[in-house]
Amino acid sequence: MQKMDKPVIVCIFGAAGDLAQRKLVPALYNLYLDNAVPEHFAIIGLARKVDHGPFKEQMHTAVDTFSRRGKVDPERWEHFAQNLSVIDGEFTDPEMYRKLAQDIQNYEKQWAAKADHVYYLSIPPGLIGNVITQLDKAKLSKDRSRDRVVIEKPFGRDLESAEALNKLVTSAFDECQVFRIDHYLGKETVQNILAFRFANALFEPIWDRRYIDHVQITVAEEVGVEKRGGFYETAGALRDMIQNHLLQLLCMVAMEPPVSFEADEVRSKKVDVLRAIRPIDPGEVYKCAVRGQYGAGYFQGTQVAGYRQEPNVSPSSSTETFVALKLFVDNWRWQDVPFYLRTGKRMPVKSSQISIQFKPVPHLMFPGSSADHWEPNRLTINIQPKEGILLRFQAKQPGKGLRLKTVNMDFFYEDSFTVQAPEAYETLLWDVMQGDGTLFMRADQERVAWTTIMPVLDVWSKTPSADFPNYPAGTWGPEAAEALIARDGRSWHAPALGNM
Ligand code: BG6
């Protein structure tokens, strides 16, 4: 990442919260260590009931704990933290914004230069409207080229609320100033899908319905809902993971080649995919979608609680912690190729992978016995934990006679590149500071993503599941998820790499 020339001030609303501590401030510190922030750079935290001294201490501990580089170097931290300050107040109070405007002005005076202003809203969804309105009133949103707002997911909780939020946000900011964040798009391997597909001539000619049998996208998490029960109860896996992360991964796999790497070009190609997803008929939801909720179980030999026993979760909750979904993309490239998506908490391993299953060869000339273990080709894009790409193909087993065996050809980031990859939030924050929206969700993307899942959301909210909890913690989800894919004569692919 190159060093920026223009001064930048990052204002983090909710600076004492979990995201700021785990991700945002460590990411900004790492960008600083990589020499990627400008010489004139400041972070202003906005939070409730936090004083300057304790705030700095808190951020120091956060970076020590969560930075990918481990504990901070005291000298470098001191330098970084010189321009780290906090404004204590209420997000609804105009006074907070007056102070913010004043602090920004002071920095700009001191630097004798205008800065770009990034307003990062790491706050509960219910407060976003207030902050946007106050920023607007304080005239902090007016400069199209220098004022930017970053909004965390979930962007709304359904199509209607997302539309309303969008209206409000765009009444204060122009669309080009709005950065709707989906941290999956900042992951190196996710970005690498574009390089893999469009910088190599080898795969694109076979990347369609003639050669591909189906696509599977799995995002499995080992963790349960942790301390986020309060939020999760209002979300569930469909809103929390499918509407954003998994649909974005689907877009990366299914999109047409963009003409250039410009933000709007890339985003338009993704919107085309979302628009082509076959609408789900509410009457058919039971055929193409499965929900699950984990009960008590065992994880790595230790007993763990069920979702309903987690803090801030209702003992009769009908919130889903697992979703499996079958979708089709109705266009020339993908007609009738199923895309199977699944995600869940408390799965046996952490694994995010995309698996492209190719069709069988038209005629297998080998005698039956030699091809007992024959399998069609499969390409696996492993997003985490071990980032890489694997191609499975057939080889002859050494020895007399001819016996086929499936073997792997693989590429791993850590083997091929010696530099440590930046974390998703580093990439995304750097892009926001540059004003590059390529990896962010445009309003129309959000809208179509909500439209895609609305029939499922509606049906599920009207008919709470009768069998929750329906999978024990530490397993691959409910049996119905196996049946969903087994009905098509297929099965879920085990993680190619698992938790390594
Ligand atoms: C977040 C979800 O967006 O992504 C969390 O809100 C989830 O529920 C997380 O745990 C997973 O992200 P990652 O990067 O750990 O796969």
**Percent range for helical residues?**
25-40%
Question: pLDDT average, as an integer?
Answer: 94
| Structural shape | globular
Strand order of the largest sheet: 8-12-13-7-14-15-16-17
Bound molecules: 6-O-phosphono-beta-D-glucopyranose
Distance between the termini: 28 Å
- Tally of DSSP helical segments: 15
Please report which band the strand proportion falls in: under 5%, 5-15%, 15-25%, 25-35%, 35-45% or over 45%. Answer: 15-25%
What structural class is derived from the secondary structure elements?
A: alpha/beta
The radius of gyration computed from the alpha-carbon positions, rounded to a whole number of angstroms, is: 24 Å
Low-confidence stretches: none
Question: How many strands, what sense, and barrel or not for the largest sheet?
Answer: 8 strands, mixed
Total beta strands? 18
Short summary of the structure?
This protein has helices spanning 18-33, 52-66, 74-81, 94-111, 125-137, 159-172, 188-198, 229-233, 237-254, 263-276, 285-288, 413-416, 424-434, 443-462, 479-486, and strands spanning 8-13, 41-47, 84-88, 116-121, 147-151, 178-180, 212-220, 289-292, 294-295, 297-299, 302-304, 322-328, 338-344, 351-358, 378-384, 388-396, 404-412, 471-472. It is α/β, with parallel strands linked by helices.
